[in-house]
Amino acid sequence: MATLTIRLPDDQHARLKAMAERRGLSLNKLVEEWSTRGIAEFDVETRFMALAARGDKAAGLALLDRLDAHFAPGSSTSKG
User: Fold this and answer.
1) If you compute the radius of gyration of the chain from its CA atoms, what whole number of angstroms results?
2) What is the helix, strand, coil percentage profile of the chain, to 5?
3) Under a CB-based contact definition with an 8 Å cutoff, are residues 26 and 16 in contact?
4) Calpha distance 76→80 (Å, rounded)
5) How confident is the model over 15-40, as a mean pLDDT?
6) CA distance 69 to 20
């Protein structure tokens, strides 16, 4: 396991510590959860970009047109 040292202004550190305590977490666990979320978002974005690079632009736009038609106001399947 690695150790990471970061520098924060004292007031920001105090606010983060209070946030962690309110959530019933250590400050370490709070930052660990944030980093896990950030990595998950990065992985999703990376996967999306890879799929987009291999994809067919015309087919993707056609699919979006079908979704627009499906959810358009007045459509029998739209909610609204």
Assistant:
1) 22
2) 70, 0, 30
3) no
4) 10
5) 97
6) 45
